[in-house]
Design goal:
Elements: H1 2-15, H2 21-44, H3 56-76, H4 81-88, H5 94-109
Helix pairs in contact: 1-2, 2-3
């Protein structure tokens, strides 16, 4: 969902002409922090060769905090986070279906 949220942010930034540079900059910075926190969680769960001193519980909390910060920044810009989350997880979203199909194919292959 992080990837989908980041793509939605990029789309919203491109389409919304009333946002000022400061608001867009804040959204971009928060989105980057979500990405970094997700990478840190991967490392903390030892899903990567690159170690971190942070434990997975702390990394998970950090990711959640960063997602909240991004949602708050989006809310300031009047981006409909709840509406987007509903669409992103709905069966109407073709990207969700493709993703599920890929995961199922990978599972079948293993």
């Amino acid at each position: 969902i992080v990837d989908a949220l980041l793509k939605a942010v990029a789309y919203a930034l491109e389409k919304e002409k009333s946002w000022n540079g400061d608001k867009m900059e804040t959204v971009a910075e928060e989105a980057a922090e979500v990405s970094q926190a997700a990478l840190k969680l991967i490392r903390a769960k030892e899903l990567s060769w690159n170690p971190t001193p942070m434990d997975s519980g702390e990394a998970w909390e950090n990711l959640c905090d960063e997602i909240i910060d991004l949602c708050l920044a989006l809310d300031v810009c009047r981006f409909d986070v709840a509406g987007f989350a509903g669409y992103a997880s709905s069966s109407q979203n073709p990207k969700l279906k493709r993703w599920v199909d890929r995961l199922e194919k990978k599972e079948d292959a293993e």
